[in-house]
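Re: Re: ligand-bound prediction request (bumping)

Still looking for help on this. To restate: I need the protein modeled with magnesium ion bound, output as structure tokens. Inputs repeated here so nobody has to scroll up.
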Amino acid sequence: MSPSQQKDQQHQSSDAESQVGRLAAEFLGSGPVTVSEIGDGNLNMVFRVSGGGRSVIVKQAPPYLRVAGESWPLTQDRIRIETEALRIHNDLAPGQVPQVLGCHPELAAVVLEDLHEHTVWRTAVIAGRDVPGVASLVGSYCARVLLGSSDLRMDASTRKQLESRFINAELCAITEELVFTAPYIQAESNSYDDALAEVAAALRADLPLRRASAQLLWEFRTRHEALIHGDLHTGSILVADHDARAFDLEFAFFGPMAYDTGNVLANLVFAAIGHEERGNPDFAAVVGGYAREFWTALDEEVRQLWPAHQPWEEAFLARLLADSARYAATELVRRMVGLAHVADIDSLPPDARLRAQRRCVAGARSLALGSPVRTLSDLWSRATTEETPT
Ligand code: SR1
Ligand code: MG
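Reply:
Sorry for the wait, this slipped through. Here it is.
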């Protein structure tokens, strides 16, 4: 970069920071504010703005995908979608997402409460830090928002009108491409270690798995069941003791409930396999406990919220679990060979990483191609203990 380009960039970023500072000022005491960029996400800029002894978060969407730059334009309407989804999820599951303090659609920015004492759940889990109560809270969050925004609990006309506000075509297209399509073809966006090239080639040649993924893509596009988070994993949940808040709702749309629950479970599988391959079986067992707590809380909350005049909750729960396993399979594959990976696996030393990657793909095949999963322990053991081909 030339010195004049560097100067331009400094100007642009200081302009952006003063704009962010002005947006946040009304939520802070009078006096000077400091703005620091704290985000490392793929899509947006995230700033912490502090002043007068308080702080808030400002999330701003540039008109492109942050990690790719201007070569990948992306709608700024994603901030409106995220803001509305946060408000709706907060109504359905009070206190289980960050509070929206203000929204500035013209600047594609939302101001959020700063949960600075919380940690990203993935960070805590990788560090082997048990945060009590969190898995159950995530289970009850899923039950509340998924049932609450579905025809099971929401008036049909309200729900239909709401659905039209969450078409979210561009962000759904990202998921459709990166989760269900690219990992099974030779796509430029794919990225994996050389050592995994053989596994990636086997995935491309795996017709049954490709069929299963194509069918899940169809279901992702056509099952408009509830206002799902759309990217719910341990990296999009902030935690403190007995508190869990789902964040980053820009992928929200009316889609299949099992996409969210399957993603939570797959990301717990990454954590458990990561710990096993790191030589920490005890913490891997703790993570297995999280998966059970998550599903138990979800099951209990669904039964609590279930409408009395709909006598089919057993069938609903059985299908949700079986479909969660199928969606978990797509997440297990895409985080190994696709564009976006997970630190639980990528941070392992090379030999352990390769073993973990192979296990994730083997577990995915078992979930996607085996008989329908009927119990959480069946899901967990198939995903975490499947034999890898030698
Ligand atoms: C280019 S966006 C890549 C991934 O980041 C987001 O967090 C979603 O998981 C998406 O698939
Ligand atoms: Mg995200």
